[in-house]
Amino acid sequence: MKLIFSFFLLFIINSNLFAQSLEDSTKIDLHVNLIPGETYSYSTSSKQSIIQEILGEKIEINQEFVTDYKYLVESNDGNSIKIKATYERIDLFIDSPEDQIEYSSLQNDSDSRFSMLNSLIGKSFHIFMNANGKVYEVTGFEELTKDLKLGKVAQQFLTDSSVKSSLNMDIYRDDAVVMGESWNKTNVIDIANLRLKSDLIYTLEGTSEDLVWLNVNGKVSGNGTSDDFNMDLNGTQTGTIETDIKSGMISSGDIKMEIEAVIKSLDLEIPLKVISETRITSRKL
Q1: CA dist., res. 82 & res. 34, Å (int)
Q2: Is the C or the N end of the chain the one with fewer CB within 10 Å?
């Protein structure tokens, strides 16, 4: 059960971000257009419901993870954008048959088992992305967490790979698109002994003077092997995204993912169903 739980934490914040700028009255050029010195609030919130069945018994786990950052754009040379990300809030809620966790960095009397996360508030690391929004490097994050005595739960949320994946915006098309046009983006992520693949279709649904709206629709799949288990998963991902034309930053986004998986361990086959709802917001400060 712990194995299953740890694996699905990797899906938290597995949502895609968008950035746009207006090229002319009929085409939208998708790229990040952040100006050095600008600051943004950036927040992610992900809720999950995990239902697994072991020997005929159904077990449900509900969890939520919220992170607020302050972004400071330090440089942008047209090819590489350097952003200083500072933690402002971390919330963690888990309700499972094994344990109940309710932690918030905003509350002094929060779950003491996760009090070490308080030390991250106000601390910063750097992310580097290209003009298409791909986060290709994260620096300074490992230094923030290397001395923390993290339990297995917190450790799943606070890794270079999880942060890099959650902040990635690599969905942009190189050329401009017209209203109603769709394009495909495929992404493969290797995490430990798991390979996850998303094959998503984005459609330009509308624009206003300041905003762009995109629809997201596609499939996710994956497999993993180790000495203890084999796993296959398949699912769908849908959602809508609203972005700011001028800056290219997301203003609001809602992504829903439904996954069905089977884990084979020894003589057991353990079916799982995961429903995940992720919300991302940002605004210029």
Answers
A1: 10
A2: C
